[in-house]
Design a protein that fits this description.
Length: 149
């Protein structure tokens, strides 16, 4: 019950933030990009720190110039990145992508799992839809021309 309230609040907050940011696409993209970079920075620094712990040789194995950052630097960056990405609604889409989510909801197979025949059938269906859309577009243009006269 408590988790559901937190989830609903987060969903409501995300909708509000996305609604506001959608009017400012450059700022939206900038915040989303910052969230992704901060998130991956946190992953990178966390694993650098873990590697230092496991292989304490006295020689810095970290890829950063300052190997003496506090232990919480990486996890804090991950947290800040996740918050930015969740608020902007980009967390799932930036890592998974819309196509995969939609195909999962439709319960479609991955392209690698489809047979050649299934792919050909799908391509033929797409070609038929494209042809139908073209026919509809042609009819609309004719109707527009008639209405203009």
């Amino acid at each position: 019950m408590f988790f559901k309230k937190i989830y609903n609040f987060g969903d409501w907050l995300e909708d509000k933030v996305r609604g506001k940011l959608s009017h400012y696409p450059i700022i939206y993209a900038f915040i989303g990009g910052m969230g992704i970079i901060i998130f991956w920075r946190g992953i990178w620094h966390t694993f650098d720190y873990i590697m230092e712990l496991f292989f304490a040789t006295g020689v810095s194995l970290a890829s950063t110039s300052d190997a003496y950052l506090p232990w919480w630097d990486g996890p804090l960056s991950i947290l800040i990145g996740v918050i930015l990405l969740l608020l902007t609604g980009l967390f799932v889409t930036s890592f998974i992508g819309n196509e995969i989510i939609i195909s999962g909801l439709k319960q479609e197979k991955k392209i690698a799992e489809k047979t050649k025949d299934e792919i050909e059938i799908e391509l033929n269906e797409n070609a038929k839809m494209k042809s139908e859309v073209h026919k509809i577009n042609t009819r609309l243009e004719k109707l527009e021309n008639i209405l203009k006269k």
